[in-house]
Write a structure and sequence with these properties.
Blueprint lengths: L6 H5 L1 H7 L4 H29 L1 H25 L3 H28 L6 H29 L7 H23 L21 H4 L1
Helix pairs in contact: 3-4, 3-5, 4-5, 4-7, 5-6, 6-7
Length: 200
């Protein structure tokens, strides 16, 4: 749920760019760059996920998402080069979408086979809360912003940062590494602390 507060920024980047004063040509220049950046990061993320572990990669991707969005907001506000902003957009989109995939993977890897589908479904329900926050914020701001509409990207940054940072903290301190887990034998309690008597 936490990380999905950033969801609407992934779909409204075109509007935020034009609202910041960029014309259609400049928008197309931004759009030319980000798919290549996103693809490169996706390849690297796939290679490192099995080597470094899900927690490390997940934390890196979440950090990349929020840093990319912050840089994009700054770049648009300061009128930076379109191709540079395209790189920042690529950072954000690649970080966000690959992070979401990693979280889904970790949920699947930590659940017994007979609960795996249910866990994925429950995850979608919690994610919907984050989507609702982003949707409500978008509607309320766009209807009442007036000339301040050009700051929509900062609004998205404002609702994304708490959710993303909260999700990163949960993953760092409450979620266990799932790399190398046997999906056929996983019980879901492998990471529970064992009583002292049992440990002996």
């Amino acid at each position: 749920m936490l990380y999905t507060t950033a969801f609407y920024a992934t779909g409204y980047y075109g509007q935020t760019i034009t609202d910041a004063g960029y014309n259609a040509t400049q928008l197309s220049q931004v759009a030319i760059v980000w798919p290549f950046v996103c693809s490169a990061i996706t390849i690297v993320y796939g290679l490192l996920s099995d080597k470094l572990g899900r927690k490390v990669v997940s934390t890196a991707l979440g950090s990349l998402a929020v840093v990319g969005l912050a840089l994009l907001c700054t770049g648009l506000y300061c009128g930076w080069n379109e191709y540079v902003n395209g790189v920042f957009l690529g950072f954000f989109l690649a970080g966000y979408w690959n992070w979401g995939d990693t979280i889904i993977l970790m949920v699947s890897e930590s659940c017994p086979t007979n609960f795996r589908s249910s866990a994925a479904g429950d995850q979608g329900l919690f994610a919907a809360v984050g989507y609702l926050i982003g949707y409500a914020t978008t509607i309320l701001f766009t209807k009442n912003a007036g000339e301040a509409l050009k700051y929509l990207d900062f609004v998205y940054l404002g609702i994304a940062v708490p959710g993303v940072l909260g999700a990163i903290l949960v993953i760092l301190f409450k979620v266990h590494e799932t790399k190398g887990i046997d999906l056929d034998t996983v019980r879901g309690d492998e990471w529970d602390e064992k009583p002292v008597a049992e440990a002996k």
